[in-house]
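Section handout 9: paired folding examples.
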Amino acid sequence: MDRSIIDIHAHVFPEKIAKKASSSTGDYYGIEMYGDGTVQDLLEKGEKIGTKRYVIHSTATRADQVVSVNNFIASVKEADSRFIGFGTVHPDLEDIPGEIERLISLGFKGIKLHPDFQRFNIDGENMIPIYRIIGDRLPILMHMGDENKTYSTPRRLARVLDIFPDLTIIAAHMGGYMRWGESGDFLVGRDVYFDTSSTMEFLDKQKMVDMIRTHGADKILFGVDYPMWTHEGELENILSLGLSEEELRLILYENACKLLNIDV
């Protein structure tokens, strides 16, 4: 069956640093990477399952990287309409309001934050003014979960949602990589989106189905986490869960279209 697919979670890097950036991420998580992190490689890999659109992003690990990272993502999305850009900010960036305004003016559809790589607690006092600035203007794709660090725990995100109920958050990795029990305790059923990336290789199928159906398929987004995993494998994983065609349509593209005001 032909399917429309939007990949909500893809990382790309400039060609001169892509392989190094990709391998460094693999070393951090102890995972052999599937792709080399280049734009062309992402397209070639995604086309194997007929991916129509890709939400692309990268993380600024220092404040002085923010503008260059955002300029790169802007150049990629402007060159090919299949790409949807999520920008980045950093807690130490001097002019966060100005950069967010610039992202909006450049047509970015959201912001990606990675608490573990950027070294901030999701519910840290330094983040409160940033959430207030972002408000309801852009969704935030938040990396969630880590086995060895506590920057991005589901409990921390739940505190932020209590303070800022109008924030639109996409909690990556079904709310917490390797912390899915905590995600179930603190995030499932809340007004927050989950993406499926970096989860189905680890989580029992029935637990995955239970999380999807308890949380609501209308708040789940399909993501591959390229260059970490294969597009074929992630699609096969979601199709193997026994979800209904309606649930699959929502997860694979309809929710993303509605959230980001895009089409396939």
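Moving on to protein 2 of 2.
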Amino acid sequence: MENFNFYSPTEFVFGKGRENEVGFYVRKHGGTKVLIHYGGGSAVRSGLIDKVRASLDAEGIGYCELGGVQPNPRDTLVYKGIDLCKAEGVDLILAVGGGSVIDSAKAIAIGVLYDGDFWDHYCGKAEVKQALPVGVILTIAAAGSEGSPDTVITKEDGMLKRGAGSDLLRARFSILDPELTQTLPAYQTACGATDIMAHVFERYFTNTPEVEVTDRLCEAVLLTMIKETPRVIADPDNYDARANIMWAGMVAHNNIVGVGRQQDWNSHGIEHELSGLYDVAHGAGLAVIMPAWMEYVHKHDVMRFCQMAVRVFGCHMNFADPEATAMEGIRRFRSFLHSIGMPINFAELGAKEEDIPVMVEKLGIGSGKRAGFMELSAEDVTEIYRIAAHASL
């Protein structure tokens, strides 16, 4: 196990009806003027925004609002949010939604206190030195942004999807009411589950030896998702299954399962170019890319893939042919994703094989390599996209 620091200051407020307490937690964490940031009309139609307003009014907290966050959140709305916060004297941003809303809120939080272009933090020109505090009411279990230091934004000029991160961007508080996820369509639920599993796998596939504790934590989250996701697809009102998934989504990405070990985020990076180009759901893109990445890199450490196959997907270990076990585990992962309604190849996703060179170029690898579990050149990434394009069960 490697040396590490772990800092996770978020206060998690979990359970039924806890969104009605948001005014108390805004006040507790120093907010006096709030930007309520949300996505489409569902938060309004469901009455959730009305509950937020009422709770803030009860605490005497002022607020302004900015809706319209899209999946793969855009820089154009972030700029509007920054201007609004400066004009209104906002001192806390309240994200009401899923990962896209939270990521947009974090970007606004960076930009309000930064003299330059907030995008500097997403293209590697600047580090996050300060940010407004962010609070969260989570409505989709997926991205884990409610507990993570990360944010991903799409720049509309060129449709570049890039990330930034800092412990300063961890939410001060996150309200997690599983009931708020019960109205999600099955497809969105499945996309979220895929994203959660990907966050774990990006940590699970490591070159760091002797990490049994975090291996077992990763496996526990993955087994939970394998059990609970079909339950909520079959019964969207299953509160207990929703609750387990919601907490798994947070645990998967606040890094408790990833400390002390090298991590690999190449699948996310490769997928970002796919969803950036086609504007598809991130989880759906990961369902296509992650198994393809696994197929391509599994020989780098066959026994780690065998461990996944046996511990997570219940395969029998073939000691005479470990690679067969590894490939069976990958096949079972892809089959699971298919069973919950996820695409498994470019055709099902709506992507085109002829666009692979464009996506590879946008990754910006050039003649170098992307670090990770296995270093990847532009040629390696091209082959992963090709495997994804033609994948089958």
